[in-house]
Design brief:
The chain is of the alpha/beta class and 278 residues long. It is built from eleven helices and five strands; from the N terminus they run αααβαβααβαβαβααα.
Length: 278
């Protein structure tokens, strides 16, 4: 009896992931992926060779210059943070790209910039960006390692430390550009209370409403990545941005054509559906 029960249990086992067969993607999807990668690489190469691409001006970018001008007039520092994520999040890289441009503007206008950091590995990269930006403008003496404090990997401690820097230094402007969690509202409310011009940019859609309510300008979603490419004009970023837009256009065209065929065929054979192997 016991042997039969064990045999029944064994027969009812589900196949493990190791025994399951991989699902092959249709050849058409592979070709589409190869075309998208080719378009992306081609635009990056063309940008490196000097081709100029148009990037739409974003109102929040104009606000960055306005905020820094106000800080110069008031003789007060600005605070800039790339959020709580490390280099495994593209928002942090985009925030650092914008930081390089903002730091150069601070060097030209002789404005102190404070950049509190949440992740240890981001500290050295942030310090290097500030140092190189000041050096490029002939203001290397403005760099102070104390202006790149590592606070904590804990979100509560990080938020409390950043708020402390904002209040004690009475910053004239605050930039929140990167990935954020619940601390977004804490930071933005503090900046609103002390009267700072606030500019936020994030792709974390749960935090976007808080930034919209409490900040003067908010860059939403992909505008964060477009801002970095627009300000720095770095060929790889510009080419990547243009290539992604072309890829999205191709996908939208395929969806539009497939939807049209689905409506017209009224349940009969759909060429696009067959092509994608559905």
């Amino acid at each position: 009896m016991w042997h039969g029960a064990g045999h029944a249990v064994g027969a009812g086992k589900r196949p493990t992931a190791a025994n399951s067969q991989p699902v092959d993607a249709p050849w058409s999807l592979r070709i589409l992926a190869a075309i998208l990668c080719g378009v992306l690489l081609a635009r990056m190469i063309f940008a490196k060779k000097g081709r100029q691409y148009f990037i739409r001006r974003i109102p929040g970018i104009d606000a960055i210059e306005e905020a820094m001008g106000r800080a110069t007039e008031m003789g007060r520092p600005i605070i800039y943070t790339t959020g709580i994520n490390s280099f495994d999040n593209m928002q942090t890289l985009a925030g650092l790209a914008v930081l390089s441009w903002v730091a150069r503007q601070c060097a030209r206008m002789m404005v102190r910039i404070i950049v509190p950091v949440c992740q240890p590995v981001v500290v050295s990269a942030t310090a290097d960006i500030l140092r190189e930006s000041f050096r490029a403008e002939g203001r290397e003496e403005m760099f102070d390692p104390a202006d790149v404090p590592f606070l904590s990997t804990d979100q509560n401690a990080y938020a409390a430390g950043t708020i402390g820097f904002m209040v004690r230094n009475e910053v004239a402007a605050a930039f929140y550009i990167g990935g954020f969690g619940f601390e977004s509202l804490l930071l933005a409310e503090t900046g609103n209370r002390i009267g700072a011009i606030q500019i936020a940019a994030t792709a974390d859609y749960f935090q976007i409403p808080f930034f919209i309510c409490a900040c003067d300008y908010t860059l939403i979603g992909e505008e964060l990545y477009a801002a970095g490419a627009y300000l720095t004009r770095e060929p790889v970023q510009v080419g990547s941005l243009v290539g992604q837009d072309l890829g999205k256009l191709m996908i939208l065209l395929i969806l539009a054509v497939g939807s049209a065929f689905a409506v017209w065929s009224q349940g009969n054979l759909n060429p696009i559906e067959g092509l994608l192997g559905k």
